[in-house]
Amino acid sequence: MSSVFDVIPYEDLTHPFRTIGTGSFGSVYRSEYLGLPVALKQIQPSKDYDVQKYFEREWRLMKEARHPNVVLYLGLSRSPEKVTYIVSEFVEGGNMRSYIHHKRKPFPWTMRVSFAIDVARALAYLHARKCIHRDLKPENLLLTANGRVKITDFGFARIAPRNDDEQKRITFCGTDAYMSPEILLGESFGLSTDIFSLGVIFCEVISRTLADDSRGDFRRNPATWGLDAQEVRQKANDGCPEDFVQLSLDCLQLEPNDRPDCREILERLSRIEVEILQREKDSDTHVGSVKFVAGKRPNMAPRIPSFG
């Protein structure tokens, strides 16, 4: 613990903790810290990974990250039994996986592209600092009360290898349905491995279909570990802009160097957002024979702000 602001006294946390999920290496609980809702992550022993190494890497990366679309790190706390917890903000809206899965929840195209932009913004921030997340998936994308997305769970995250020696020591990890072909084939990988995972998430967003669903949607080709472009197009929901489908497929390119980087993805998403908003505006201004002068239906809810 490097500074007084890293230390959160265990007695200042409200007990008992309530279990809300599991992360890469441990359980996640809800508590309160001096009246503020917080999430606590506790490491669990593992035979497969050096959990202490990953845990320390996770809290150090979270501590350095400062972005509206990255979960905010608050500090570390240690129980009398010497159990260490990462303390972060509590994001109350659940995760993107649950939202996609519950088909009764509204999921208009404005919200879908908003989700995509938020994730791309967070990933652009991480990649600008040469940080690979390595476990990008809807379960690690949390939703705020006003519909913003925040990346969490940095258990597998690390700084991209800077040379061949570091590349040899890098481990292969992640979640199968979102892993890039280069990871599944045991080849070297870099920042673009996250772009492939982002492409799988985009496919889920445009189709409202989960890639790791028990139904076997978005199955991988065992020869290349790529996704079937025709299946992606067929599953895209009505009203999906063609450019959104194409962006998803471009992120899924088998060759890492052929995938767009985060800057290009954000530029393309911005154009897609303009197209969707214009389409909705045109729809709003002409409803049957009625035309609203202001270009909006009466009492229309304001558009979700970019940050918060």
Describe this structure in words.
- It contains nine helices and nine strands.
- The model is unreliable at 165-170 and 289-308 (pLDDT under 50).
- It folds into two domains: 11-89, Phosphorylase Kinase, domain 1 (2-Layer Sandwich), CATH 3.30.200; 96-281, Transferase(Phosphotransferase), domain 1 (Orthogonal Bundle), CATH 1.10.510.10.
- The protein starts with 17 loop residues before the first strand and ends in a 23-residue tail after the last helix.
- The chain has 308 residues and is of the alpha+beta class.
- The strands form three sheets. The protein has a five-stranded antiparallel beta sheet, with helices on one face. A two-stranded antiparallel sheet has the order 6-9.
